[in-house]
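so my prof wants the structure for this chain in the tokens format not the other one, which i didnt know existed until like an hour ago. anyway here's the sequence
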Amino acid sequence: MNIPFTNLKQQYLDCKTEIDEAIADVFDRTSYITGPDVTEFEQYFANYVGAEDCAATGSGSTALLCALRAAGIGPGDEVITTPHTFVATPESIAMVGATPVFCDIDYDTYEIDLDIVEKRITERTKAILFVDLYGQCPNIDAIRTLCWENDLLMIEDAAQSCGNYWHGMPVGSLSDLTCFSFNPVKNLGAMGDAGCVTGSHELMERVRMYRDHGRTGRYNIVELGYNSRVDNIQTAVVMAKTPKLQEWIDLKRDICEFYTDSLKHFVKTPVTILGNSHSYYVYVIQTSARNELQQHLKDKGIGTNIHYATPAHTQPAFSKWYRPCPVTEIACKEILSLPCWYSMEENQVEYVVDSVKEFFQ
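here's what i got, hopefully its the right format
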């Protein structure tokens, strides 16, 4: 049996009519960048996640960059973040001239360790930029309390958690600024790069300025910004897919819960933090025999991945901000992501489980 790590085509097939019509409409009107299409998307997505406002960006990475600029964060400031994430998270901090302060992760959940976060706060700290890793939030209430007590901004990298809920409240409505990615591999993916930020009207106006070269009018450049405008085709694709998102997540959740029930005696399986619905962007197990298991699954025709193989704080580009994060460094040598795309058939899911068990038996 051949089981790829992901199956991007199925999302398109499930929404083919809606996507094709939306793209054809963009082509027909020759409206490719900005304009009413983007405004419609921003209003739609803000309503979907229960946010006051939304500003679309060209990618999840530039969503982070524009959000930090909108928050006024720059040289001399410190932003606390996690090393166990895609490099875009700390990269955005460094790119605005601020200092990324790395905090290790919790052993059970891989989310940022809030006990360590509290110890890292200094008079230069301006924000906590946390990541909703693998599809769930860390303890939002605890982070909100830390930010309130220390006059910090609460910035959420929700690239992996669109569709997750914290105590019934959707991600996108929980923090001062929430950054989303619609990279094609995400649960809600475009057909190219796209992203957005949600938050207050005031902050979103600043995000819109920074995403468009720092201008407030066609020839009125008030600050230096970026070319981070979103393509209208991508907003059309995301809007066409959004009504299906919760159905897709429910199907993924069933698969992942079956994995956990079947594999918990063989490997370390995911822990859902109380309060999360968990959207399962990826399903991650941990074992000291990771490399051997990955090769075994490859031999069985099963695709896997590693999220993330190298901690961000050990990358050469971040060497001057390095500080030991031992839990992260061990985890990155042992974690393995199993295929969990929502349209997997029952026999495929069982084959993955049986193949993992076979390795350990």
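also thought this was worth mentioning. The mean pLDDT is 97.
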